[in-house]
Amino acid sequence: MKYPFLFALLFFVGCKTHQASDFEYSNKVDTTDHPIELQNKKTYAVDGVFADNQFDGARLNDFSKLNDQTFQATIAPENFPINPSPWYAFKLWAAEDRLINLVLHYENGAHRYHPTVSFDGINWEKLDSNFVAKKDSTDAILNLNIGADTLWLAAQEIANSAHTKKWCETLAAHPSTNFKTIGKSKLGRDLYFLDINEGNPHKKEIIAVISRQHPPEVTGYFAMQAFIEEILADHSLASQFRKKYRILVFPLMNPDGVDLGHWRHNAGGIDLNRDWAYYHQPEIRQVADFMVKLAAENKSDIILGMDFHSTYYDIYYTNKDPNEPLPGFNNLWIFGIQQSIEETAKISPAYPTSPVSKNWFYNQFGAEGIVYEIGDTTPRDFIKKKGQVSAVEMMALLIYR
Q1: Is the pLDDT of residue 65 over 90?
Q2: From CA 214, how far away is CA 237, in angstroms rounded?
């Protein structure tokens, strides 16, 4: 070869174009590994009452008896400091029918999630508020009738990696959808990917959707499911949209954190939604590089990135930029949603100064970046309707843009 150095340089540059770029932000975060403490997986047996955390998504750090009728479930985070999202999930039963008081005791946290209960781990409902009381500023007391039938008790409905895989497999039956894994988490769990497309993907504009960076944020995950299912619906708007755009879906960004019952972090002890500039955590590195490589190989532009989350109330976080990547899209899209379902969710635009996903979409691709947050207590039927409506409004705006 006449110019081996030039060839090597071009090869190196070419490889680098398939990697996500590093970014500097004024609000820096240390996302190198922090140690975590794993819960002890076991069945607790205390005076004829049993508590069990031996399933994916469980969180129970200790179970003890306080007096004849009162028991305590201790809930602790994977590490600290941490966002106050104190996830809990475990099974309860008793040798004979009895009424107990159960204290939910939090270490480094306070009661946030109203208990959700199930007798099969599939069908869930909120525990009657008459049976829930605050003990002090941090703990809660539940009045429960338990017996031989197992009672599942959780902060929100349990949706672990097995549930997500089953959902992806169901969607993969659609002829426009390809389901695969694109890498592994820190502990070796699959990173799932849905590729939704009709026709030739070359130079096709892309919408990217991610969810579940934070394990307890189930309501945002439910909204994402409804959103994607509407894009795959059997009507002309969705069909036109799939022909014009390609949709990349990463439904479970943090499978380790979800299955380990974490409050916030991945197995590296890090908030994944603070690593979108450094890529220290394997989940972010692999998903970010995958998007960059796919877009480059297809000569496609990623024009919109949506990240589904949960918080105390419904809110949209957008980027504040005079040169909007999709001029007018955010205002028209949110206005359309609010008109259709008569919601009054907050809107919070901000300059891209921190290493979160919406800023990464903006800086990496020049794309519109949106964090779509659903409230912890938002009714589930409303979440589904909102997910559907927001997909319809997005498809209509982008088809006719």
Answers
A1: yes
A2: 32
Contact 179, 168 (CB under 8 A): yes
Of the candidates 30, 86, 38, 83, the one whose C-alpha atom is nearest the C-alpha of residue 61 is: 38
Are 386 and 337 in contact, with CB atoms under 8 Å apart? yes
Alpha helices in 232-320 (DSSP H): 236-244, 255-259, 282-297
pLDDT digits (tens, 9 = 90+) for 202-243: 999 999 999 999 999 999 999 999 999 999 999 999 999 999
- The residue written with tokens 């104190």 in the block is 86
CA geometry: angle at 307 spanning 355 and 182, to 5°?
90
Q: Which residues of 275-303 are buried (b: 16+ CB within 10 A; e: fewer)?
A: bbbbbbbbbbbbbbbbbbbbbeeeebebb
Structure tokens at 327: 């001029």
CA distances from 25 to 142, 155, 286, 288 (A): 44, 34, 21, 17
Q: How far apart are CA 118 and CA 108, in angstroms?
A: 27
- List of E strands, 254-345: 302-311, 315-319
Q: Which residues contact 55 (CB under 8 A, 6 or more apart)?
A: 91, 121, 158, 160
- For the chain, state the CA radius of gyration: 23
How far apart CA 127 and CA 343 sit, in angstroms, is 26
- Which amino acid, one-letter code, is at 137? S
Look up residue 141 and give its amino acid: I
**Separation of CA 375 from chain center:** 13
Enter the pTM of the model. 0.95
Bridge pairing between strands 346-350 and 302-311: unpaired
Return the residue matching tokens 């036109």.
Answer: 240
Q: Per residue in 270-280, pLDDT tens? A: 999 999 999 99
Give the whole-angstrom CA distance, residue 197 versus residue 28.
37
Q: First-to-last CA distance in the chain?
A: 49
